[in-house]
């Protein structure tokens, strides 16, 4: 992992994949369309795949994303990230600790962390992490084991506890963009808004435009 | 992974852990006792643990095994192996391909492969693997998704297809040692014979003695 991905990454519109949700369209087409519509970063998240299936999907996405300079992050699995030379990993609280992942991935990798509580948000201040995933902002069915819904007020409070870039996640739609960016979000992380969209390119375009119009 | 583990490893008595089966005794005590009884190699196999739980167990076993020079192999997870500086990995057919794992782990790591068919045994000849796990020799309940039982004749046939060291696995007990070694096994891989033993030190001693007495 020689390239420095972390200095200038753009988490404005962050697609987190759900293979089950996009099975009709297929993961590769979903990602291709979503990036064409304006997605700036992609996380491959596979909770039930074997290592080999996960690796094959990561390779396929890397072949799409690398030529476009869009960072691919791997959920949980540092070995998959290393094998496909991904931009980095996204780690939950029961995944590898941040400093261990950093040691394996090197100084140029992007490492994102999910924070499930205010205490965890504070704790990440001393970690070598590049962004935080903060949520679920709204009620969501894509992560059945999620922590309590934050709402916009809860997001605002938790976001203020961290100096890291924060992406809002959890049933985020284009109509929430201004509210969440106003609450301090640096980007929107979306699952179903793109994975379940009939036209993910158009859906991504609307989301990205909502973000850009806030920034003026 | 700087140390060269693969040149001189001893697979005579290979403990493959099952955390559920040894929950009363605890994994660390099991491994300590089994190694005191004569286990020469240990594989940490965790099919339901989170990455962090897996890592914590790997660290605990490495702290026991490293001072004794007993190689610790990690089932499936190359990232865990890298994080704890394990001796290597054991890979099934749906895990990372051998050459990818070799690239990540380096030339000194031990890489073992499970072969489920004769064709796979032949195919490993062109892979940079250090040993094969061949089984299940007998009916087993510790790996519910296992391939058809080989029996001793099947083991003899499959073992002869490979020039690599082969360990026999699948309900292997001390009383099978001479038959299996005579059939070409280079070692015995055991799960329940040690993980479910009341006295794993004594059980390991009997298994090891059975191996050594064959070798005369």
From TrEMBL, chains A, B:
Keywords: Magnesium, Metal-binding, Thiamine biosynthesis, Transferase. Mg(2+) binds at residues 76, 95. 4-amino-2-methyl-5-(diphosphooxymethyl)pyrimidine binds at residues 43-47, 75, 114, 143. GO terms for molecular function: magnesium ion binding; thiamine-phosphate diphosphorylase activity. Residues 13-194 form the Thiamine phosphate synthase/TenI domain. InterPro entries: Aldolase_TIM, ThiamineP_synth_sf, ThiamineP_synth_TenI, TMP_synthase. It holds the Pfam family TMP-TENI. Belongs to the thiamine-phosphate synthase family. Condenses 4-methyl-5-(beta-hydroxyethyl)thiazole monophosphate (THZ-P) and 2-methyl-4-amino-5-hydroxymethyl pyrimidine pyrophosphate (HMP-PP) to form thiamine monophosphate (TMP). This is Thiamine-phosphate synthase. The lineage of its organism: Bacteria, Pseudomonadati, Thermodesulfobacteriota, Desulfovibrionia, Desulfovibrionales.
């Amino acid at each position: 992992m020689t390239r420095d991905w972390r200095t200038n990454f753009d988490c404005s519109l962050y697609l987190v994949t759900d293979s089950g949700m996009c099975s009709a369209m297929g993961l590769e087409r979903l990602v291709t369309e979503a990036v064409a519509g304006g997605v700036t970063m992609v996380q491959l998240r596979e909770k039930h795949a074997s290592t080999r299936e996960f690796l094959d999907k990561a390779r396929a996405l890397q072949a799409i994303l690398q030529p476009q300079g869009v960072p691919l992050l791997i959920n949980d699995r540092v070995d998959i990230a290393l094998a496909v030379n991904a931009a980095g990993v996204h780690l939950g609280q029961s995944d590898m600790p941040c400093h261990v992942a950093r040691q394996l991935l090197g100084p140029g990798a992007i490492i994102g962390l999910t924070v499930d509580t205010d205490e965890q948000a504070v704790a990440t201040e001393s970690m070598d992490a590049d962004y935080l995933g903060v949520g679920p902002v709204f009620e969501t069915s894509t992560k059945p084991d999620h922590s309590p819904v934050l709402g916009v007020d809860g997001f605002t409070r938790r976001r203020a506890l961290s100096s890291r870039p924060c992406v809002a996640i959890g049933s985020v739609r284009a109509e929430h963009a201004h509210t969440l960016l106003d609450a301090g979000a640096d980007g929107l992380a979306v699952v179903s808004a793109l994975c379940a969209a009939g036209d993910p390119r158009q859906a991504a375009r609307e989301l990205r435009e909502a973000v850009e119009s806030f920034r003026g």
